[in-house]
């Protein structure tokens, strides 16, 4: 959940502070390409459009960018190891995949309450269109996404 925090420097500082000298930290995050990145951008856009949350005065930190992560955590005394992996999601259709996420995923549930029902239904349509465009299985639904596994320890 740290990737949803407000300030990456505060997050990295806190991880460093609580990590014992022989400890290790780990996180997994989507990389900044592919369908999951596009879907995340659609969700962020809907929330920004429909809420009064103050917009950041600087670009959003990209948790899936290895070099940025290494720099961030090095500033707090942690050395990182990273590995890009893949995961595939399967469903009977793009609509079913979207329905499953909408019914169960915490980000989706929070988004619905933040943007209201009308904007949420539009968002869901946009996401189904995105899933259809990137579908890897014309007879069902398959989505393969890269993600980054990051481990770190004090230097």
What is the compact description of this entry?
With 155 residues, the chain is α+β, with helices and mostly antiparallel strands. The protein contains six helices and three strands; from the N terminus they run αβααβαααβ.
What does this structure look like?
- By secondary structure, the protein is α+β, with helices and mostly antiparallel strands.
- It contains six helices and three strands, in the order αβααβαααβ.
- Strands 1-3-2 form a three-stranded antiparallel β-sheet.
- The longest helix is centred in the last third of the chain and has 18 residues, at 117-134.
- The chain is globular, with a radius of gyration of 17 Å.
- The model has no long low-confidence stretch (mean pLDDT 90).
List the defining traits of the structure above:
single chain, globular, 155 residues, 22% strand, alpha+beta, 3 strands
What's the overall geometry?
globular
Rg result: 17 Å
Strand order of the largest sheet: 1-3-2
Order of secondary-structure elements: HEHHEHHHE
Distance between the termini: 24 Å
Largest sheet: 3 strands, antiparallel
Assembly state of the chains shown: single chain
Report the count of strand segments.
Answer: 3
Based on secondary structure, the structural category is alpha+beta
